[in-house]
Here is the input.
Amino acid sequence: MRYISVIAIYFALINSAWSQNASDLAGNAINLNSYGVSLEGSGRKAVLGDVRRILDRVVAEYPTSPEAEIIRSGGSLVGLNVAALDAELAGQASVPQAMAPEGLMAGDAPAPAPGPVPLAPLDARERMRLVQAALNERGCKTGTPDGVPGRKTTRGYQAFLKKMNLNNASHPLESEAFWKVLMSARGEICEAPPVVPVSARHIPGKWSYTARCGKESKAPGLRVSGVLTLSHLGNNSFKGNLVNSQGLRARVTGRLSGRRVSLNAYFGFLLGNVKASGRVADDAYVVHGRDSNRCRFTARKR
Here is the structure.
């Protein structure tokens, strides 16, 4: 079986779309179970609860698979004893679930526990991604988990501490103490910010934007910033002009549909049109999207 890092496993749990078959899902459960060996108390129980939820997905989505049959019968999956897992979650296990040997049934003599399934090393950036994803899952928004603690991560972290009546002196962001509290917290800890209204009257004005072009774009490595000045045309349409950091200018037309914004920037005969579309964020007048050059952009209203 292919072994993957803890961060990949956790993203699989959050997004519920990472694995494509019963074997992959079961592999995620096995790896996450092995990681749970290093935890104690409520943090351990929270991780094992996630293991159980992955197993439930296997049964629900792949009921005829061999893995689903093993799970239903309380058997073992490469060191993960399902019956022992359920017993520990119910508070009945005297032996830690992840250390229970394969095939050990009630009344059997204890046998040496199998070693944990190997995991890829969890470096500092992967651990920070995991922390960011866990904060997002608990409603303390940190933005896209990228492993780099910036302003959004700090805001989400501080919001979590406030809700849990903790402080950053006793629970620094990258400390084991904070990690254990975060892993033991379940449900929506931070309240969702109010959703800002969006209509045609909210679009006119000046917008600052930045476009970043990745390897898959038509201009790899390019980073361009600029200003959009927009006015209302009527209904959900608007027009304006654009000036970017390369000194280029364009005439802009666009349309709003719900929270979706579509734009067309005409740079003249030689450069032609660049089309872009994105979505207005729920909590601020910020648009994230992609253009026809396959560059990603962020625009923020001034």
Residues 1-19, 93-121 have pLDDT under 50 and may be disordered. Residues 76 and 171 are 37 Å apart (CA to CA). Residues 124-184 form one domain. The beta strands are 76-77, 80-81, 205-212, 223-234, 237-244, 249-257, 260-266, 273-280, 286-291, 296-301.
